[in-house]
Amino acid sequence: MAKNKIPYFLTAAVLVIGLTISCQSKGGSGNEASVAVLTQLLQGSGSGTTSNCRNFLPQESGNIYVADQIVSAPANSGIGFKDSYCSANGVRGLDLFDGSLDVYTLDPSGIGALLILGWSGKKVLPGAGIDFMVYENPFFIGVQNNTNSFHSVYLEPIVVEVGNDLANWCGWNPMYANSNPSVFSNDPSVWTRFAGITPFVYNQESNPMTVSAVYNSDVVHGGGGGDGFDLADTNFGTTGSGCTGSLKTDLQTNGFLYIKLVPAITALPSLPIPAGNGTPDIDGVIAKNLSP
């Protein structure tokens, strides 16, 4: 379920009811937590609420190309946070302590634990440095100012793979390196080569950024945030269903058509991921270089 303080108008009735809720919000890290819980239920539970993200379109500029093609989204209902369009309409981060609401929520298991996006028939081409960014909606936990150590994140890890035929995929060998591997950690540094780890502030309307900033994951020190992936990474091609040496070489040389996102709780069930950290909320994916 999407997690955040809700920056939309709420009726007085909802506010009154929200103030009576004492449960802890999965998302909002501020005083509106109880209201966030209620609003999340109204928007994301299939109650008939229309999706706000339908009001927005992807905006592209040089070297920022949105994955605007929804290839497979089995959990899609077209309603609230189950509207897959929210994952393909651009990127809309908020701030360090609040995750985006322009998101499509994956299921923790079953056929709905999958999202495949593309670039409408164009290939993501390899280039220097980061080739693409994945944006989930993590946020930093704790005091909401610069005294925060920025070592604790509400995160929902995602396994990322790419391919060309929707059957064979190559990934980046994601690793969980907590000192106690049987215990879940909110420290982003122990989640390597996963998506859903790094908060982001890049927003195509309200916080546009230079290309170099957008492809900089260091959100604390001026980068746009999000999780970046490089086809030239030495770990690429060491994991993935159907990933052969020849496929790895082809993808690294000629690029890929599709990206597959699966909750780590599903793809790597041996990891100690709580249920509350197993339903990633996808804001979008962007690539730096596309084929003509």
From TrEMBL:
Keywords tagged on the record: Lipoprotein
Domain of life: Bacteria
Name this polypeptide is given: LIC_13355 family lipoprotein
